[in-house]
Amino acid sequence: MKPEICLFCTKETAEGLHIFQAVICRECEGTLIRTDTTHPRYPEYVEKLKRIWPACEAGY
Predict the structure, then answer these.
(1) What is the Cα–Cα distance from 2 to 50, expressed in whole angstroms?
(2) More reliable by pLDDT, 30 or 57
(3) What b/e sequence results for 44-59 when a residue is b if at least 16 CB atoms lie within 10 Å of its CB, and e otherwise?
(4) What residue ranges in the chain does DSSP mark as E strands?
(5) How many degrees, rounded to 5, is the angle at CA 19 between CA 34 and CA 35?
(6) Structural contact between residues 7 and 46, judged by C-beta atoms closer than 8 angstroms
(7) Tens-place pLDDT, residues 31-52
(8) Which domain holds residue 54?
């Protein structure tokens, strides 16, 4: 599998969670799942996830 760039950490990854054209590496996926909504970085994660939705709305 061709390495892709993680939406969160911007590191190359050969595997991870694919959502439309975006990929989230296993490490970032785990961090995202474990992050409580009261955590200071939670809003940052939400903003990064919002980058996926334009592709969703375009039908990709």
Answers:
(1) 24
(2) 30
(3) ebeebeeebeeeeeee
(4) 4-5, 12-13, 16-19, 22-25
(5) 10
(6) no
(7) 999 999 999 999 999 999 888 8
(8) 4-58
